[in-house]
Amino acid sequence: MSSSQFSFLADLTVVVHASFVLFVIAGQVLILIGWMRKWHWTQNFIFRFLHLAAIGYVVLEAWLGITCPLTILEYHLRHLAGEATHSMSFIAYWIHYFLFYTAPDWVFILIYSLFGALVLLTFLRYPPLKKNGEKYESA
User: Fold this and answer.
1) What is the pTM of this model?
2) Taking the alpha carbons of 136, 124, 34, 38 in that order, is the dihedral positive or negative?
3) CB proximity list for 112: less than 8 A, separation 6 or greater
4) Which residues pair with 129 in a beta bridge?
5) Where in the chain are the domains?
6) In whole angstroms, what is the distance from residue 133 CA to residue 38 CA?
7) Residue 113 and residue 62 in contact, taking contact as beta carbons nearer than 8 Å
8) Any transmembrane segments, and where (predicted)?
C-alpha cells in the first residue's frame, strides 16, 4: 500500500473514533429526551445495551489506563504512511481537536466515570423494553 492509502486509512480511523464518541454522547442525550417525550425507540434493547456497553468500555479503559485501540491503530497507520502522529489532514486535525484534550489522566477518569454512571442510572430508571413492549425486571 502507498503512504497516501495508509494516510487515508488513518483519517478514516479518526472518523470512526469520532462516530463512536458521538454515539455515546448523542445517544445519551437522545435517551434522556426520549424519556421525557415518551419516544419508544429510545427503549430499544439492542440500542440501549450497545450504548451502555460502549461507555462501559470507555470507563474500563480509563480505570485500567489502557490506550484506546482506535488511537493505537490510527498512530500505527500514520507511522506506516510516514507521517508523524500529529501530522494529519485538515479533517483529521479538526476531529482530533474536538476528541483529544490535554488534561491530567484523573480528569478524564472522573468525567468518563460520571458519564458512565449517568448512562447506567438512566438504563436502570428508564429501562429498555422487550420486543413485546414489556419492561425488563431489574434485580
Assistant:
1) 0.80
2) positive
3) 55, 58, 59, 62
4) 44, 135
5) 3-125
6) 13
7) yes
8) 12-33, 45-66, 106-126
